[in-house]
Write a structure and sequence with these properties.
This protein is an alpha/beta fold and 343 residues long. Helix content is 43%, strand content 17%. The protein contains 14 helices and 13 strands. A 7-stranded mixed β-sheet has the order 2-8-7-6-5-3-4, sandwiched between helices. Helix 3 packs across helix 10 and helix 12 packs parallel to helix 14 (327-342). It is globular, with a radius of gyration of 20 Å. The mean pLDDT is 97. Bound molecules: pyridoxal-5'-phosphate (PLP).
Length: 343
């Protein structure tokens, strides 16, 4: 039975060009700083994001853990959206590794207003409270449906945060989806943050890897943290070579994933028993709610018919479009969803 895997954009397989590059890439020991592919990837990433330097990391989670560590000190606090990955899904890494507390701020769409940032900052003169050191933004925002921060809102939030003495980290796991969807240069998005992490292993199709970008000084600090966390790899160019290809060839095609997500969401919204907020479907994530089935029942029934998705709440399901999913797969998925909902 053919399987249409819409669980995540992390299930993407490397392209044939990536496979070839993995086999033939010139390699060195990256801990000695002499892996040519890692160096090329880091330079490309820094240039693309308009930052001084970049560091190749094994995962987006490590990117955020390092982002917290670089921007804070133990006993301090970082503000983040209440549905942010850094708050919900990183095993309390900020607390365990950096000794830092995340202060969650509930937002409507993941976009934090200047007023919310101001209100979340602790009074400096009260020694009972932690010191607010930093804020973390997420763009696109996963749990809020893959929505893109309007650039003017991101700029306003960053300006307020910086004006109040906070450092700004951006979890840009899907920053290229945001850039392509909004038609905004990725460097303009990255300029709103001091440090940025983006993932190669999601819509860009690499088997693993993320990149941390920032000033030369922040990247030096990040390198120390990567070593401390055991994330410094040796012939990492085997993977970094795929990242170089991804930045060259896989960014513009994200528009195809967004178009597929839009068609999928529109089709789902027409099915009886489904509610899907189309205004939130701006990139490659499609969240929808079921009126007569639980998310787990729906996931199981679709799975039996070869469509894989993920229940993310009692009645909520997420489908993710990505490289390898075609317009035809979207039509097949809609037929299977209709069948499942009518049984
Ligand atoms: C917004 C966001 N940040 C960070 C991550 C972590 O990336 P990784 O799975 O590479 O650790 C994810 C993964 O899904 C994510 O969606």
């Amino acid at each position: 039975m053919p399987v249409i895997d819409l669980r995540s954009d992390t299930v993407t397989m490397p392209t044939p060009e990536m496979r070839k590059a993995m086999a033939t890439a010139p390699l060195g020991d990256d801990v000695f700083g002499d892996d040519p592919m890692v160096n090329e990837l880091e330079q490309m990433a820094a240039e693309r994001l308009g930052k001084e330097a970049a560091l190749f990391l094994p995962s987006g989670t490590m990117g955020n853990v390092v982002g917290v560590a670089v921007n804070t000190r133990p006993g301090e606090e970082m503000i983040a959206d209440a549905d942010a990955h850094v708050f919900l899904y990183e095993g309390a890494g900020a607390a365990v590794i950096s000794g830092v507390q995340i202060r969650p701020v509930a937002t409507a769409t993941g976009v934090m207003t200047p007023a919310q940032i101001e209100a979340a900052i602790r009074p400096r003169d009260d020694f009972h409270q932690p010191i607010t050191a930093a804020v973390s933004f997420e763009d696109t925002h996963n749990r809020h449906g893959g929505v893109v921060w309007p650039l003017k809102d991101l700029r306003a939030a960053a300006q307020t945060a910086r004006g109040l003495g906070l450092r700004v980290h951006l979890d840009g796991a899907r920053i290229f989806n945001a850039s392509v969807a909004a038609g905004t240069d990725v460097a303009d998005i990255a300029a709103c943050a001091d440090t940025v992490t983006f993932c190669l292993s999601k819509g860009l199709g690499c088997p693993a890897g993320s990149v941390f970008c920032g000033s030369a000084e922040d990247v030096d600090q990040a390198r120390r943290w990567r070593k401390r966390l055991g994330g410094a790899m040796r012939q990492a160019g085997v993977i970094a070579a795929t990242g170089v290809i991804a930045l060259r060839t896989m960014v513009d095609r994200l528009a195809e994933d967004h178009a597929n997500a839009c068609t999928l969401a529109e089709g789902l919204a027409e099915l009886s028993g489904v509610r899907c907020d189309l205004s939130r479907v701006q990139t490659n994530l499609v969240f929808f709610d079921l009126e007569r089935m639980t998310g787990s029942e729906f996931e199981a029934e679709c799975g039996k018919r070869g469509v894989l998705g993920g229940a993310t709440g009692p009645n909520r399901v997420r489908f993710v479009t990505h490289y390898g999913i075609t317009a035809g797969d979207i039509q097949s998925t809609l037929k299977i969803c209709e069948e499942v909902l009518s049984t």
